[in-house]
Amino acid sequence: MELRQLRYFVAVAEAKNLSRAAERLHLSQPPLTRQIRQLEIDVGARLFERTSRGVELTEAGRLFLDDARNILDLVPRAAARARSAHAGQIGRLDVAVFGSVMFGRLPQLLAAFRAAHPGVELVFHTMNKGDQIQALRQGRIHAGFSRLTSSYPDMASETLQHERLLVALPEGHALLQRKQLRVQHLADCPLVLFASGPRPNFTDVVFSLFERVGLRPTLSQTVEDAVTGIALVAAGFGACLVPASAAYVQVPGVAYRPLAQASSKLLDVNCIYRRADGSAVTAAFVRMVREFGRQG
């Protein structure tokens, strides 16, 4: 059974006459008649009855007409969906995130991508950067967002944003009298640190900042993420060094000050993806990450 036979069948059914259908199809009648007979053989049922006026559908023919029209309608839709998939307009994108990266420009990026690609289903996963790399290699996710990423030969990355480093302090703390802090100001201040996954991690950043000025931080608590660290600051456990985006978490009793010695590129938020990923959806997403990254 061929698509052209279905088109011939629908034309004959609508015209109720082989001659008129042949004219509509720009065919002579004999080959059209042969194709209809062959279709009836392939289907295994008589689809038309001849009448004095032309032809009429049999009961089998009436049922077959509905399905034939549906099949013919699906052909252009299937082609359109294939073109959309090729252009990255439809499909599924699995994205992994962790911690405070969700408080920066990432929500704006995701909103823009959804608006531009409404046919793409976005699915989110919470994973630290070590788990993200494993999930990327296994094909369970298409992209991951994290900081302090290592270089892997099978992975590529795009920088979404640069972030300053802030010091979260409990309200009323003496250091809040300063508009900007230096590492030396934190020499005697208990610190809440968060590791943020496998090394190199955020704890390494803090220790390196202190080592540069010949100091060692005084640890109060070690937690898994910035949000928990900020909550402990509010509870009076000490100060916590956090990415600037973490300040979006408005916890009562906490204020922030910038840290002078920290580079604005110290805490880049990067999008990681497989170099060998041939998905058009992933490619479209990475292009948008790159565009956002160029905006600063």
Concise summary:
40% of the residues lie in helices and 22% in strands. By secondary structure, the protein is an alpha/beta fold.
Q: Say what oligomer this is.
A: single chain
Nearest-integer average pLDDT? 88
Spatial gap, N to C terminus: 58 Å
> How many helices?
9
> So what's the CATH class of the largest domain?
Alpha Beta
Which strand order spans the largest sheet, edge to edge or round the barrel?
Answer: 4-3-5-12-6
Stated plainly, the CATH topology of the largest domain is called: D-Maltodextrin-Binding Protein, domain 2
The CATH architecture assignment of the largest domain turns out to be: 3-Layer(aba) Sandwich
Description:
40% of the residues lie in helices and 22% in strands. By secondary structure, the protein is of the alpha/beta class. The protein folds into three domains: 3-86, Orthogonal Bundle (Arc Repressor Mutant, subunit A), CATH 1.10.10.10; 90-162 and 268-294, D-Maltodextrin-Binding Protein, domain 2 (3-Layer(aba) Sandwich), CATH 3.40.190.10; 165-258, 3-Layer(aba) Sandwich (D-Maltodextrin-Binding Protein, domain 2), CATH 3.40.190. It has a five-stranded mixed sheet with strand order 4-3-5-12-6, with helices on both faces. The longest helix has 28 residues, at 59-86. The radius of gyration is 32 Å and the shape is rod-shaped.
